[in-house]
Write a structure and sequence with these properties.
The protein has 194 residues and is mainly alpha-helical. It has 10 helices and no strands. Helix 7 crosses helix 10. About 8% of the residues have low confidence.
């Protein structure tokens, strides 16, 4: 199904939009969640369903100039849910465990009761983002969305073929675009360090 039909269904609040989105993008999104984020089947389907439901609810509020623009929107919604899921999982691992310190002086009892990873996760979650990361995030925010997406996907070791499929663009000039995007980012980083 082409994207114009789906967009028309979204604009007219047609119940068919949910099914059209699922049939067109559901398997691709599911595969991405499993392969790249190593999610369980349930978590992957949950991310897919949340993405599709959000697009059905909010998609009519946006104007899409092309299929690429529409697919980028869908992918960003999916990434948003994946990031939220990741944060929830991390928060679940960093919960503190309260233990009774009534051990009659035996410190090994305390060490067995307190998970070292719990404290490590807690202190890491409290740390401030390093200045270099703040600078990098600021520089990335100044790039065009297509350049930013390309750089971030390549940084996650996606192949150019995979990036072309995700972003809905042709692969023929992707290496050149990646090189130019890197040069823009380097220039922004150099300017911010002055």
């Amino acid at each position: 199904m082409n994207y114009e039909t789906i967009i028309e269904e979204l604009k007219h609040k047609d119940p068919q939009a949910l099914e059209s989105l699922y049939n067109t993008y559901g398997a691709k999104f599911y595969d991405y969640c499993i392969r790249k984020w190593q999610l369980s089947e349930d978590a992957a389907w949950e991310a897919v369903y949340q993405t599709i439901e959000t697009v059905v609810l909010k998609g009519s509020q946006y104007q899409f100039e092309s299929n690429l623009h529409f697919q980028n929107f869908l992918f960003k919604v999916l990434l948003n849910f994946l990031r939220q899921l990741y944060r929830k999982q991390q928060a679940g691992h960093s919960a503190l465990e309260f233990v009774e310190l009534d051990t009659d002086g035996d410190i090994s009892v305390i060490q067995r009761k307190i998970d070292k990873k719990t404290f490590t996760d807690y202190y890491q979650s409290e740390s401030v983002e390093p200045e270099i990361m703040q600078t990098l995030n600021h520089a990335l925010s100044q790039l065009a969305p297509s350049d930013k997406d390309l750089l971030l996907l390549k940084a996650q070791n996606y192949t150019y073929d995979e990036i072309a499929e995700i972003l809905g663009i042709e692969n023929n000039q992707l290496k050149v675009k990646h090189h130019r995007a890197k040069q823009k980012l380097i220039k922004l980083l150099n300017e911010s360090s002055l």
